[in-house]
Specification:
Blueprint: H1 2-33, H2 37-40, H3 44-67, H4 73-95, H5 103-117, H6 119-137, H7 141-145, H8 147-190, H9 200-217, E1 221-228, H10 231-238, H11 240-257, E2 261-265, E3 268-274, H12 278-292, E4 305-312, H13 319-335, E5 341-343
Parallel strand pairs: 4-5
Antiparallel strand pairs: 1-3, 1-4, 2-3
Helix pairs in contact: 1-3, 1-4, 3-4, 4-5, 4-6, 5-6, 5-8, 6-8, 10-11, 11-12
């Protein structure tokens, strides 16, 4: 946030200097070509005192943003808001009829500062403008003579920013709701609705990331392809509701052993595990089988699973091959009697 505010501060300094330059040229031309006696009562030095002071302040401001970017940043912003408005109104007081051209700038201060720095600064600018404008209306000969015009601008300063603030608040609320929905549907898109595990889509994405990571850092990993044994019998005997509970329980147990565990669909799961030594894979496989064969809570159902393991890059060096070979190893484990694990290198 501080970096964003600092960027806005620098942009605002540039805008301010450009605006002051254009204003000084306009005032200079107006001074020499107008017949307004009120303006002629002031010397150029009196008229240019405020704009030149603003230029001086802005160069100091620019120096501070470079030398002390985050020191007293909030105070700097508040000070710049008040100075911008007060000096603009002061110049409007000096130039009389030409002041009508500057009224729109006050409206921009109210809205623009809110866009840059948020709600609190927006309201600071809003109330500063209202106070400064009322002072101008009752201290300037031009505005006293054109009070209806001045009150029209006052109503604009009151109503339009409030409408804008309301609109922006509603927009922010809608954006928050959209972000909530986006996160909700993003979770649904990448996670299994029953078990909460990452799904096949996220598995494919993260498998590619594991392969990319190996190519950079040479950290080996293995793919564990897990299929629950005789799960169809559980559905047939106990019903699909119990089958769903069994899948949820199995997913918790698998994830407790290997963090990167995914449900591919049905009773098929896959896990990705980084390792250094071969014995780590045997340990993880035994731990997976031990967790699966614990009795399910509040039932006499005992789970079991067949596990196929393929290593990257010793068993396969592509995404397609490692998935295919882990699946083949699992199939051989199931064919040889179930409730066991096979490495791809031992099954072909």
């Amino acid at each position: 946030m501080q970096d964003e505010y600092l960027r806005h501060e620098k942009i605002q300094i540039v805008i301010r200097l450009v605006f002051i330059t254009i204003s000084m040229i306009s005032i200079y031309c107006y001074y020499f070509y107008t017949n307004d006696t009120h303006v002629k009562n002031y010397t150029l030095s009196e008229i240019f005192a405020a704009p030149l002071f603003v230029v001086f302040i802005n160069f100091i401001y620019l120096y501070m943003t470079k030398k002390f970017p985050y020191k007293l940043q909030k105070q700097r912003i508040i000070f710049s808001v008040i100075i911008d408005i007060c000096l603009t109104v002061y110049v409007m007081f000096l130039v009389d009829a030409l002041a009508a051209y500057y009224a729109g700038a006050l409206l921009w201060f109210s809205i623009g500062y809110g866009m840059r720095y948020g709600k609190k600064i927006a309201y600071l600018a809003y109330f500063t403008i209202l106070i400064a404008w009322i002072v101008l209306l009752y201290s300037s000969t031009f505005w006293l003579n054109n009070l209806e015009f001045g009150i029209g601008w006052l109503l604009t300063f009151i109503i339009l920013p409030l409408y804008y603030f309301r609109l922006v608040t509603k927009l922010h609320q809608n954006i928050k709701i959209l972000h909530l929905y986006a996160r909700k549907y993003e979770h649904k898109a990448f996670h299994d609705q029953l078990t909460g595990l990452s799904n096949r889509t996220l598995f494919n994405q993260e498998l590619r990331e594991f392969i990319q990571y190996f190519n950079l850092h040479h950290e080996k990993f293995a793919l564990f392809f897990i299929d629950l044994d005789s799960f169809k019998n559980i559905n047939d005997i106990y019903g699909h509701d119990m089958g769903d509970k069994v899948l949820v329980e199995a997913s918790k147990r698998l994830k407790s052993v290997i963090e990167h565990t995914y449900r591919l669909g049905g009773d098929e799961f896959v896990s990705i595990y980084k390792y250094r030594e071969e014995y780590e894979l045997d340990d993880r496989a035994k731990e997976l089988m031990s967790e699966l064969t614990k009795p399910c809570p509040q039932s006499n159902i005992v789970l079991a699973g067949s596990i196929g393991i393929a290593r990257y890059p010793s068993d396969a060096d592509t995404e397609f091959e490692i998935k295919k070979r882990a699946d083949l190893a699992m199939y051989n484990a199931k064919k040889s009697g179930k409730n066991r694990y096979y490495f791809y290198s031992d099954s072909h």
